[in-house]
Amino acid sequence: MTDRFNRQIDYLRVSVTDRCNFRCVYCMPEEGADVCSREELLTADEIIQLVEIASELGLRKIRLTGGEPLVRKDLADIVSGISRLPGVTDLSLTTNGFLLAEQSAALAASGLHRVNVSLDTLRPERFAPIARRGSLDRVIEGINTARKVGIGPIKINCVAMRGVNDDEAADFAEWTLREEVHVRFIEVMPIRWNLDETVEFEPWRAHGDRGLLQLNQHSGGMLSDLEMRRRMISADELRTKIEEQHGPLEEAELATNGPARTFRVPGAKGTVGFISQISNDLCANCNRLRLTADGFLRPCLMSDGELDLRTPLRADASRETLADLFRHVVEHKPERHYLAEGQQVTGRGMSQLGG
User: Fold this and answer.
1) Helix (H, G, I), strand (E, B) or coil at 214
2) What span, in angstroms and rounded, lies between the C-alpha atoms of 62 and 83?
3) How does strand 182-187 pair with strand 271-275?
4) Please, what sign has the CA dihedral across residues 118, 123, 124, 126?
5) d(CA 196, CA 216)
6) CB–CB of 71/17 below 8 Å?
7) Could you please report the per-residue DSSP string of 23-85?
8) pLDDT digits 0-9 by tens, 79-134
9) Exposure winner among 126, 217, 310, 355, fewest CB in 10 A?
10) How far apart are CA 242 and CA 173, in angstroms?
11) Within 10 A of 102 (CB to CB), how many other CB atoms are there?
C-alpha cells in the first residue's frame, strides 16, 4: 500500500498489551497508567487474524510491542501464529529485557527473528531512578541469553536525556567494540496522556543537574511535556560526544535498522545508530502503522486519530471489510508531526500506543 505522500507502507507495530512492569520516567507515572480490561484486549487469535490481513496488503515487517510484551502469558503463541504467515518476512520484538532471559528460548523456538531491548543506562545507580523497577543485571542477562539462543541482531534502544544519561554515549559505543550489539540513540519525545498542565512552548535548550531527574510532582513522577523538551539532546550532539572519545565514526549498514542512521566505531563488532525524529524529522520515509492492544489502528504515533478494528472483527466482518479499514487508515496517514514546533501529544501515552 502507498499513502498520499507516495510512502510505501510495509511495517506494522502491534501492541500486545498496555501493561508494563517498569515505570520509566519519560513513559509512565510511578503509580502506573489506566489499562484495558481483559475483555477489551485483542486475543491471540484476533491479533494473528489482523496481522494476516495486514500481511496480505503488503505489511510484511511486524514488530510486537507493549507496554511490555513479555508480561503477556500467551506471547509465544502469538509469535508462533504470526511467524507461520507466508506474507511476514520479518518478525521482531521490543522489550525492556527484564523477563527476556527466561523467555528467549521459547520465543526463538516460536519463530521470533530479532529483538530490541530498551536500555537507557549502563550504570546500576542510574537504572533505578530512570526505570523505577527491575534491575540492570537482569536486563543484561536477558540480552546475553537472547544472543545464545540465536535471536539477532540484538539492538539496544537508548532514550538520550540531557543531564541524565547523555554522558554515557561513549560508554554505549564502547560496548559495541567488545560485543556484537547495535546501539541506537533515540531523541526523547514529549508524549503524554491526559496532559494536565498548560505549558508555553520553549525551544529545545540545554538543561543541567547531571544525573538528577527533576520530576513534575503533580504528573505522578513522570517527566512533564516541558521537562522532556528541556532534556532533549540531538543526535548530532551525541555523535560528537562519542567521537571525542573514540574518533570519527565510520558509515555502516545494518539490515532492518529502520530510520536509524548507522555508523561504526573503527574496529567495532557492533554499530551505533541515531534516530533523530526531533532534530531531523524522519516522517518523509515513515512506512508504518500501529495496532493498539485493544484493537485500534493508528496511522501515526503522533496523531490522535485511530480506527476501531476490534468491533467489526468481533461482529464477524468480512476480511475485505477489515482490509478496507487498513486502506482507509493508510489514506489518512499524516505527512509529518510538529513536535519541534511545539505540538503537544495528548490522549494515549506511549505505553498505551505501543512504543
Assistant:
1) coil
2) 9
3) parallel
4) negative
5) 11
6) yes
7) --TTT--TT------TTTSPPHHHHHHHHHHHHHTT--EEEEESS-GGG-TTHHHHHHHHHT-
8) 999 999 999 999 999 999 999 999 999 999 999 999 999 999 999 999 999 999 99
9) 217
10) 7
11) 13
* C-alpha 132, offset from chain centre: 18
Give per-residue pLDDT as tens, 127-168. 999 999 999 999 999 999 999 999 999 999 999 999 999 999
Q: Determine what percent of the chain falls in helix, strand and coil, rounding each to the nearest 5.
A: 35, 15, 50
Question: What distance in Å separates the CA atoms of residue 308 and residue 297, rounded to the nearest whole number?
Answer: 6
Q: Are 103 and 145 in contact (CB under 8 A)?
A: no
Question: How many CB atoms lie under 10 A from the CB of residue 18?
Answer: 23
Are the C-beta atoms of 5 and 286 separated by less than 8 Å? no
Give Cα separations from 116 to 103, 154, 240 (angstroms). 14, 6, 24
pTM to 2 decimal places: 0.89
Domain positions in the chain are 11-353
Which CATH class name applies to 11-353? Answer: alpha beta
Distances from the Cα of 299 to the Cα of 3, 93, 218, 329, 337, angstroms? 10, 20, 31, 6, 12
pLDDT value, residue 29: 83
Q: Cis link prior to 203 (omega < 30° from 0)?
A: no
Sequence-distant (≥ 6) Cβ neighbours of residue 200 within 8 angstroms: none
Distances (CA, A) of 25 to 91, 167, 228, 278, 323: 28, 18, 10, 19, 37
Mean pLDDT of the chain: 87
What does the block give as the cell for 217? 510532582
